[in-house]
Specification:
Two copies of one chain form a homodimer. Chain A is built from three helices and six strands; from the N terminus they run ααββαββββ. The first copy, chain A, is an alpha+beta fold.
């Protein structure tokens, strides 16, 4: 869903790789499967969402947090808005807005995902930040 | 405010540099001066906070957004909790929780700041994400 501005031209298309990883994990999430995000999160990942009282640290904590959510999420449709990727060296940050449609309800999200390329060439998330758009404000 | 675990030992202390930049900008912000953050934000910065309807893109947009806030913020005291910095190549991500004390009111924040080192060696923010901790949930 990157627009033409979001696509890097280079020896490798980092924007395309990052967006592909994110969308693949998101689509699993939307069908009730947290394993897509867990598979692409690093050992030393840290994580924020609107339900946690503080930052969560490490893949084991994220696995424990997501485990009870398996099978609970059912997002029928999503729209990702104006994703941008900025990369330098072995890191890349993806930032986007997301609208998730669950039945008649639409939840709007802000999302930041920071990816790091490992020595094996695989990109993994080291920081996730999900937040509500304008919570409690209309 | 990094604890000993947060401090990298290496030829340069990236954690210390990043935390120093962030705290300096935050302390200006807390006294009503947005210029500290603007000074360390890159041309291509993108930005989320709980008051915006979508991602804000570019330093000019951030300057315009912050301008009316000059002189309006007065945070008497803040506490930064468990900041972590992960760096690779020319990028670094800082993630922390923050409690800001304004009079009798305490606001708890999640914050992600992604810094990129420029060709001049200076670190500048390319992605900022501020969100409320557990908005509307107690």
């Amino acid at each position: 869903m990157a627009d033409s501005k979001g696509i890097e031209r280079g020896e490798e298309n980092i924007t395309g790789i990052i967006l592909g990883l994110e969308k693949s994990a998101l689509e699993k999430w939307n069908s009730g499967d947290p394993s897509g995000y867990l598979d692409i999160s690093a050992e030393d990942v840290s994580y924020f969402d609107p339900f946690l009282p503080r930052k969560l640290s490490g893949i084991a904590a994220l696995e424990a947090y997501y485990a009870p959510l398996a099978g609970k999420v059912r997002v029928e449709k999503y729209e990702m808005f104006s994703p941008t990727v900025i990369a330098s060296g072995g890191m890349a940050v993806l930032a986007f807005n997301l609208s998730s449609h669950e039945g008649n309800r639409i939840q709007d999200w802000n999302c930041t995902e920071v990816y790091r390329r490992g020595s094996d060439g695989a990109w993994k998330i080291v920081q996730t930040h999900w937040s509500f758009v304008r919570p409690g404000l209309e």
